[in-house]
Amino acid sequence: MAQLSVIQGRIYDQLYSPLAHQLPEADILRSIRALDEQLEEWRLSLPVAIRPTISTTPAMEDLKLKDPAAAVSDGWEKNLQIYRDTIRA
Question: Which of the residues 4, 25, 27, 34 has the least number of beta carbons within 10 Å of its own beta carbon?
Fold first, then answer.
């Protein structure tokens, strides 16, 4: 989980901070690619049993309430959404 928090900090610093808003688009796109790679490396480093997937199901939402390890998926999905929102902006 600590590594995901580090990546979340980088997402903010490189995409949403006041300094990031002053960067050229090419720099932002490079950051997005690098952050995407970091998220994917983090995801693949997790045991398959708790590895988040790209999409969720209602059953996964129920599991998050019962199993704290399933909450890992939620953090990854939030980062993925930030990444997707940035690309669309």
Answer: 25
